[in-house]
Amino acid sequence: MIGACLLAKKPIFSLFYIPENLYESTSVFYTVGLLSYYLTSLGYFGVTLVNGVGSSTQLLVGNLINSCGTMAVAFVLLGVFKLDIIGAALIAPVCGIVLVVYALIVLKKNEIPLPKTAKGFRLDKKLFFAILKTGLLMGLQSLLCQVGDICLSVQTNRFVDSGLISLSFVEVASVGLPLTGIMSSFSTVCLVFIPPNYNAGNKKRVKKFLWIMMVLTVSYGAILTLVYAFFGKFFYATVFDDPNLIALGARYWRYYSASMIPVSVLFVLRYYFDCIGYNRLAMFAGVMQMLGALFAAFVIVPQFGELGRGISTAIAFSFATIYLVVAYFLVEKFHKKE
Amino acid sequence: MQKLKFDVLNDPIRKIIIGVCVPLIIVTVISWFTTSVTNILYGKFGGEYFTVQGLIGIVLTSITQVVSCVISASWIKTAIYYKEKRSGDEKPYLATSVYVTVIVKRC
């Protein structure tokens, strides 16, 4: 896959309307990012392993390494060695190595042997294929979401400097702050709680849990809406010195704030369906998100430019969220009939 | 094997939510700070990082997202199988989930 992406670099770049003056730096970032992908994803896997088998302290330390490590590596590669764009592309893989080492230490400490060292290890074929099936369905769902995002990205790049969208807008839109990270922790607790309880037949307990999670996550989504609407100027002032970029960033955050409530619902409901074995229902949420993103990419962005790009996330997530809420009540009705 | 601190089938829901979420929320709040500092470093020393990321970043993100889904599936299925078999030894299931994730990564 990586080889194919590298070989197809030129057509991909022309598809994404990469400007000529940025071709070289984009090429370096793309090539280094792809070549080091294996290390980066191993790092994610390391964090998941620690989350799954570690104690609370080990979980805390693992995630601290993940977030503080990125900052430390960025400081060394960018601040000390001045590696510029190559350094920026190398940050994730270097952190990946650190996380894998930590995951191995945790496994050893908790006396969990790796497959090759597990005494009398026999691959559970049934589980193997069950994971593969579920994983690929979830992966397909994710890819469907990504198709919409890819089209959005292509369409945004296409209208750069046409008067509708400026390159500066693309720049400010890519600056992120992990404010939705707390919603991810709500998804994690769904993964921990729902599958065992649902399979043990504790349906009432699962329902109670789901409503608590919905209240928590939507309340947090409402807070984030206010943060994105009113604190953009403050945030962008910490990243850029240029007042134009700061004003543009604040405007982007104001548009983006509209997506927070739909996102919050999605974070819980999508995982709920995955956890109770309704993977296809969850997958169609990906389809709806893709349709929303395509609608935004081909109808809203060409019409409204930067405003359209800013609210595109809200449109895509709203499509998926409305579908999931309807699906939830239909499933409930179906269960009651049973 | 370290004994798990939560009994997800019987413990109060509040205890489980707090037990799982609090460490992750602490980490997230810390990561707001570290990401802000990293953003400053990108802005000052990362050259055209933000522009390049905005133009082509989605391609790299798409690849990593698919792998993340297989990792999530590993945990969901391993938990269900452990509950079903209740053999008292989850090692073979954990090992299988490690295997399948690594194999998908290699594809």
How does this structure look, described?
The complex is a heterodimer of chains A (338) and B (107). Chain A is built from 15 helices and no strands. With 338 residues, chain A is mainly alpha-helical. Chain A has two domains: 87 residues, no CATH class; 215 residues, no CATH class. The longest helix of chain A has 34 residues. The model of chain A has no long low-confidence stretch (mean pLDDT 88). Chain B is mainly α and 107 residues long. The longest helix of chain B has 37 residues. The C terminus of chain B is likely disordered. Chain B has three helices and no strands. At the A-B interface, helix 3, helix 4, helix 5, helix 6 and helix 7 of A face helix 1, helix 2 and helix 3 of B.
Kindly list the characteristics that best describe this protein.
heterodimer; A: 338 residues; mainly alpha; 2 domains; 15 helices; 82% helix; B: 107 residues; 3 helices; disordered C terminus
Explain the layout of strands and helices.
The complex is a heterodimer of chains A (338) and B (107).
Chain A: H1 2-7, H2 9-15, H3 23-35, H4 37-53, H5 56-80, H6 84-109, H7 125-158, H8 167-173, H9 181-199, H10 203-230, H11 232-239, H12 243-256, H13 260-275, H14 279-304, H15 306-337
Chain B: H1 13-45, H2 49-85, H3 91-106
Helix pairs in contact in B: 2-3
Q: Between the first and last Cα atoms of chain B, what is the distance in angstroms?
A: 32 Å
Give me the Rg of chain B, rounded.
19 Å
Average pLDDT confidence of chain A is 88
Strand content of chain A: under 5%
Helix content of chain B: over 70%
> Distance N terminus to C terminus of chain A?
45 Å
Largest sheet of chain A: none
Count of discrete domains of chain A: 2
The total of helices of chain B stands at 3
Strand content of chain B: under 5%
Continuous helix count of chain A: 15
SS-based structural class of chain A?
mainly alpha
Strands of chain A, count = 0
Mean pLDDT of chain B: 74
Question: Any idea what the radius of gyration of chain A is?
Answer: 22 Å
How would you sum up the global shape of chain B? flat
Greatest interface and its residue counts? A-B, 117 and 88 residues
What is the total tally of β strands of chain B? 0
